[in-house]
Amino acid sequence: MSSRKSSLPQTLSRNGFLSEVVWPFMSGYRICPVHAVCVNLFKRPDISFKGRKPMFSRALINATLLAAVLFTASGIAGWVYADQLVQFLMPSMEQLERMVEVTQELEPGMRQPILTVMIFLKNLSVTAFLVFFGYIILALPALLVILSNGLLIGVVARVFTEDGFPVQAFIAGLAPHGIFELPAIFLATGFSFVVMTNLFRMRAVPSLGERFRFTIRTIVPLLLVAAMIEVYLTPLAITPFLP
């Protein structure tokens, strides 16, 4: 039995997908997804690329920086072409307005907590999707998310200033929560880019348990702090700059 158990991982290691996806769920013949997820959650966070690179490897850092560059470029494009893009991005702005309107119908003491949860879950659903599925079709979902968010910020900034609001008000409304929310989006997008690149190079990709652990230990804290700041502190930061 011992020789069989020792030879099984060696056999699986010949195939990158099997070694990184199947074997973690079969370790010790404990074929139990719950067990595997719990074990992966409390292990040292990393992405199981060949060579056991740490989570914030050079590849992930470079891909995250690329996501930030794409976001910045699309933000500039959103500012320049705001008049042409505003109609296409209006649904995204209306969605946030509807979230605020829903919370206005609640008891005063419940408005901020509920809005915090709604913003957090909305952002988490997008970033978690990127971590798990953003690499498909040449990372098209990741590209759409990062570019559309950049365009939206650029358009809002242009409309904000043209309506007579000072630039300081826009910065105060974005920067406090943006310093946490944007890195989460960049990391999730960069994660998708790295997975796509490794698939093309026929290298191992992170298992589902590792993707889950990356989301819980990296993305969730950033988005939770961002949502709390956006609801509780951003209104206070922007008020002094409003007419």
Helix/strand/pairing category: mainly alpha
The gyration radius over C-alpha positions equals 21 Å
pLDDT averaged residue by residue: 78
Shape: globular
Helix content percent band: over 70%
Low-confidence stretches: 1-54
Largest sheet: none
Q: Quick gist of this model?
A:
This protein has 243 residues and is mainly α. Helices cover 80% and strands 0% of the residues.
Structural notes for this entry:
This protein is mostly helical. The protein has one domain. 80% of the residues lie in helices and 0% in strands. The protein contains ten helices and no strands. It has helices at residues 2-12, 16-26, 33-41, 58-80, 82-104, 108-133, 136-162, 167-200, 208-232, 234-238.
